[in-house]
# Entry
Amino acid sequence: METFSVGVEKAAAAPTDLAKLRKSSLPSFYQRHVKIHLYRFILVLFLLVAWQVVAGRLIPVNWIASPLLVAKTAWDWIASGILFFHLKITFIEMLVGSLLGASAAIATGFLLSSSRLLAEALLPYISAFYGIPRIALAPLFVIWFGIGIVSKIALVTVVVFFLVFFNAFVGARDVDRIYLDTMRVMGASKWDVFTKVTLPYSAGWIFVGLKFALPRALIAAVVGEIISSNRGLGYLLEESGSMFDVSGILVAVFVLAILGVLMNMALNRLEAITNRYRFLD
Amino acid sequence: MTDENVIEVRNLYKWFISKNSDVLALESVNLDIQEGDFVSFVGPSGCGKSTLLNMIAGLQMPTAGFIRYKGEDVREVNTRVGYITQHDSIFPWRTVEANVQLALEIKQVPKAKRAETVKNMISLVGLEGFEKSYPSQLSGGMRKRVGLARTLIYKPEALLLDEPFGALDAQLTLTLQDELLRIWDKTHTTMIFVTHDLGEAIALSNKVVVFTGRPGKIKLTREIDIPRPRDVFRIRFSAKFGALYEEIWGSLKEEVGKGEEL
# Structure
């Protein structure tokens, strides 16, 4: 009892400075953030300088180009509009193909999940088809749809479809019985169930599929263009390659890398919006 | 209250057969439920009382016999009733407001007309101020209220409640029972209430139906002639309640545990 009251008096005599205490318990996110970016920047700078120094001295420029040469090619292509023209083509192929493939995958996944009979009948075929490397279909699509944009859209569609389908199917099949019963008693149509339950419920699954699919969709679009095309980033790659233009190849590769990163960011953003209810406490 | 039967159950059987099990869940069940009545089903777990509720909602079909709802055979899902389950079935991806208005969306009530109804319903269950909250931000009791509001909003002719307060603490259960009684006094919606808590059944209902262990048969139907309005907080201390509890428990206790022996 004695020691207890002494402790209380002591605490009362020296009130804790709350503002100070709060400050000292703040996580050091900001400092970490700055440091990480600084390290990244230094690394890139170091690599660029090293590359510039080595190019033409240790390794011939027509093998590895040089940062300055790459920058010049990039500038020329941007100024002349060549880069954006081809970028736009590849981007449209990606966007249209991905939208088509994903919607078809989600629709099929929902359909099969709501009919077990249909699912059991069709799944072995879908699995067998899944085993085919989809890129192998590129020549076929060129014959069917020509060397233009349509054959690449078809290729991207097929690639995205198979990678999203299984997730959409499992996601839709996973929907809690209780939600479906609730909807049925309220007199919901199949469309209501799809838009108000299945889609929001399986959004997480679908995004996992999309994240996996998009990089491969980009590969499909570019490979399609390399095989036969007269436009797009893949064509730019092929064209530069045939002229031994290493800096041209590298510009195309960088642009593809940037495109991939941007798409992934857009997808993460979209996922965060649809998933925001999960991260509340 | 009229004497007209809303629900008629006749010689009902339900048999569940799957790869690993072969269960006769309900055997020869006969039951009438009148318009505006408040009926509770009690019985040991596994006695088929929830199955019967599902069949009244048309979510499951009987193996033999039939259920009539207002004179019509229930052959598909019965959209004239409301159904509230023990497990949370409100949608975690929708806000309180959006959950409550779900039925209105399904019934394609124009947006302008929804707002007022939703507002009234949210205030009926005492959730003002939480319209924009997601279920994950609410307590268990508040989620139950959302579920209740979401069902009441489309004014179902009958409410089927499957152990709706099963997972809540005793205090909260009493509060929600009180609210349910208040709503029933106001609307006189036919209520069918499944519970494993005999006290709850007596406190709320006009009639308690006792089921035997598996296979579920109706063992006893007892009128609860405690006058209304009732006070769920005090009713347990009344002599009438005690006598009814003794009587029905005498019948129920022989069954408890039976259903799980299988």
About this structure: The longest strand of chain B covers residues 5-17. Chain B has two domains: 1-80+157-222+253-262, 91-156. The two ends of chain B are 41 Å apart (CA to CA).
